[in-house]
Design brief:
Beta-galactosidase, Chain A, domain 5; 4% helix; 22 strands; glucose-6-phosphate 1-epimerase activity; binds 6-O-phosphono-beta-D-glucopyranose; mainly beta; single chain; 2 helices; 315 residues; eight-stranded antiparallel β-sheet
Length: 315
């Protein structure tokens, strides 16, 4: 993997509480003096905790495997290079559902105080953690299933005003490849039936629960009153918001990504997932997942793609 963009380490400046970064036991943790923090497993580069003022924003199943034996049920798994079960006649066709990004061991590339990106205010206000994955790091099985020379850098930036997660994909090989990507965020809510997902109005979506066909979102808000599995395509609005009891709970701002999946398994699907606990945990979560999943992103040799999200919590 090209390490030329490896960030420089955080240097302490000034007096008083400093931001801190700890990397141990396969996990990176960054903390700001404000009490905001983020935890990222090297397994899948999965963000498993993001706290604002000490309060958790993400939902992680109590039965989630955090030992690298299967993708984490909760947090923010990285879906790459295919979303859902890949079409058998596509180059990704031998890969498992959602690809290998979420169940590969990523490398920790380092941390820096971020001076670029919209969260940055300079100095001690934000910390960026970088993670890398390339073809050479894949399991032998995944290498055979998708034999392309790719390089991923996933940057997780913790700021006082939110969390930014950006995926950078580079084609380091000699032939074009196609991919999809998705940041599969599970957000924690008090009661999903008192929530709506706003900012999807006038958008076309595939309803995977109803008939796998296209529909049009007619209202500006989507209420979750049963199983939801929708792929919204080419969304015009920049921001999708989770609103609880009429108050903004969390904003998901897209950065160079125009698709979003909204998912809640509800009662029956939650019962069928061995790693979903408690079984009524579906009431306390909703997935709003930004990505590029409508068709395929083509990347020629030497080209780079970048896309991600900026999350703002109103806790
Ligand atoms: C969502 C998909 O992104 O992920 C759903 O739209 C899928 O169809 C869900 O059920 C969870 O997938 P998995 O592989 O983590 O169980």
């Amino acid at each position: 993997m090209d390490r030329s963009n490896k960030p420089s380490p955080i240097t302490a400046s000034g007096t008083g509480p400093q931001p801190s970064v700890r990397v141990e036991n396969g996990r990176a943790n960054a903390r700001l003096p404000t009490g905001d923090s983020v935890d990222v497993l090297l397994y899948g580069a999965t963000v498993v905790s993001w706290k604002s003022n000490g309060k958790e924003n993400l939902w992680v199943s109590e039965a989630a495997k955090l030992d690298g034996s299967k993708p984490v049920r909760g947090g923010i798994p990285v879906v790459f290079p295919c979303f859902g079960p890949p079409p058998k006649d596509h180059a990704t066709g031998k890969l498992p559902q959602h690809g290998f990004g979420r169940n590969s061991n990523w490398e920790y590339l380092g941390s820096s105080s971020s001076e670029s990106g919209s969260l940055a205010r300079g100095g001690d206000d934000s910390i960026k953690l970088d993670f890398g994955l390339s073809h050479a790091q894949l399991s032998e099985e995944a290498k055979k299933q998708w034999p392309y020379a790719f390089g991923l850098v996933y940057s997780v930036t913790l700021g006082k005003d939110g969390l930014q997660t950006m995926l950078n994909v580079t084609n380091q090989g000699k032939e074009m490849f196609e991919f999809q990507m998705l940041l599969h965020s599970y957000f924690r809510v008090d009661d999903v039936t008192r929530c709506s997902v706003n900012g999807l109005g006038s958008t076309t979506y595939i309803d995977k629960v109803l008939d796998a066909k296209e529909h049009q979102q007619s209202t500006p808000e989507l209420r979750i009153t049963g199983e939801v599995d929708r792929v919204y395509k080419s969304i015009k609005q920049d921001t999708t918001s989770i609103v609880q009891d009429g108050k903004s709970r969390l904003d998901v701002q897209r950065d160079r990504l125009v698709d979003s999946v909204v998912w809640n398994p509800w009662i029956e699907k939650a019962k069928g997932m061995g790693d979903f606990e408690p079984k009524d945990g579906y009431k306390n979560m909703v997935c709003v997942e930004v990505g590029a999943v409508d068709g395929w992103q083509k990347l020629e040799p030497g080209e780079t793609f970048e896309g991600g999200q900026i999350l703002k919590s109103h806790l």
